[in-house]
Amino acid sequence: MRDSACNDLSPTGLACRTRGFGLGCFLIVILHQFWSRLPFSFRAIWIAILLATLLGEVHEFLAEEILEFASEKLTLCKGVHGWERRREYPIEQCSDLGWRTGPRGGPYLALSVGRRSVKFGKGLSEDAANEILSALQRALPDVAQKMCSYPGGRENFVTLGLNNR
Predict the structure, then answer these.
(1) 53 within 8 A of 19, measured Cβ to Cβ
(2) Which residues are paired to 112 by β-bridges?
(3) pTM for this predicted structure
(4) Per-residue DSSP letters for 21-65?
(5) Which residues contact 71 (CB under 8 A, 6 or more apart)?
(6) DSSP E strand stretches across the chain
């Protein structure tokens, strides 16, 4: 089974990128009047940060993330025009697959591999995540059961019902 979770073109993702670009432009306008008086090292660092941010945004926009589920392993491929980074995880070590919302970032899919958490599908909407999970359930139900379960079960947890004040 092969499914793709790529290119966050949701209104939230575009708004976040636009806000970041606008903030950078605002800072450039403010710094423009003081630019000649700033030390060269500060200007060089500032330009390097802007270029790194721009390249990161271009990479994030052009990158394609492919999830390949098989009965023995999960393969995550992230590629940009022929350059590919491939990570493989054995299904026996994978658990707790699900859609999450990050405190500072956008939504994503995540799973536990042993003691490590693996995040992918950054900016994926809840509907798209449900589509991926239901396709996994239809195509490979045994794999879906292993990956979507929580190790040791959740029945040993007790909800305390404490309020944050």
Answers:
(1) no
(2) 95, 117
(3) 0.57
(4) HHHHHHHHHHHHTTGGGS-HHHHHHHHHHHHHHHHHHHHHHH-EE
(5) 91, 140, 142, 143
(6) 2-4, 64-69, 73-80, 83-90, 94-101, 107-113, 116-120
Q: What is the tens place of the pLDDT at every residue in 135-152?
A: 888 888 888 888 776 655
Task: Fill in the DSSP letter of residue 121.
Answer: S
**CA 47 – CA 154 distance, rounded (Å):** 49
The count of other CB atoms within 10 Å of the CB of residue 132 is 20
Q: Give the confidence band of 7 by pLDDT, cuts at 50, 70, 90.
A: very low
**Mind listing the pLDDT tens digit for each residue in 66-95?**
888 888 888 888 887 778 888 999 988 888
Spatial CA neighbour of 8 closest among 17, 19, 66: 17
Query: Identity (one letter) of the amino acid at 159?
Result: T
Q: Is the torsion defined by CA of 6, 11, 12, 13 positive or negative? A: positive
